[in-house]
Write a structure and sequence with these properties.
The complex is a heterodimer. Chain A is mostly beta strands. Chain A contains one helix and ten strands. A four-stranded antiparallel beta sheet of chain A has the order 4-3-10-7, with no helix packed on it. In chain A, strands 5-6-9-8 form a four-stranded antiparallel beta sheet, with no helix packed on it. In chain A, strands 1-2 form a two-stranded antiparallel sheet. By secondary structure, chain B is an alpha+beta fold. Chain B has a three-stranded antiparallel beta sheet with strand order 2-1-3. The model of chain B has no long low-confidence stretch (mean pLDDT 93). Chains A and B meet through strand 4 and strand 5 of A and helix 1, strand 2, helix 2 and helix 4 of B.
Amino acid sequence: MSTLNVSNITDGTTTVGTSYVVNGSAKAWFQIIQDTSHTIEGSFNVASITDGGAGETSVTFTNAMANNDWSGVLTAQSSNNRRAVNNAPNTTRIKVEVYQVASNTSAIDASGGVSGQVHGDLA
Amino acid sequence: MTHLWDRLAEAKSRLEPVQSKYRVVFEDPATPDEPAKVLVPDPNWLACALEGNILPPIDTYQRDRNVEDGQPKEHPYAKPIGPMTEEEAIEYLIMKDIDPSIWRDYNGNRIIMKIVPVELIPSDRSFRNAWKINQEADERIAA
């Protein structure tokens, strides 16, 4: 594998420092199905998922984050008014819980799956 | 040594994902009222495990469990290991992603972890929160 060492990238009009691109890239992403087979449809930097019960999935990274100050963005892809919550994150995983919108009584599977991405510093 | 994340990015551009034929069903003895959990290997991760020269040694992850947040971790910079069989990859993943209190330290007489074919996981999730590992010695693993 070769390395291209540059400090700036330009399209001929706009120039941006390479560090902006590197720091702005998602360090992990995933799309998972919860309500039938509990499988991973697509991912990067994910080692496994753990089906912890209805509406609960832990996504464990292959390369851990440096600390638990990373940012996780989740979307419940469902036509049944679901919302996804990032619960108890740490450096090695994101724990996804899905609830009915306007309710946080008990988690419930997202019928269309859950997608997410993680931004932050890698270990 | 190339950073692990860079090796994963390069591998993703080259390797086809591999769906595992196994699942790991486990219960946490510290929370006996919770349903059984199911560990699902990531297809891109499994492709890296089968390919070799991408993933770090498993003991680096185990030592990194005791590293404080913000301190350098060993696994991103460790020399990668060679190719694994799918069965070896599942064992690696158990040691990496399941708490040692389940696969290493448990001394009770209840079965709390099983590696099973994916076909034995129920497809009907209507009563998902009632799943427990079947303690009988037959093909059903949860009910």
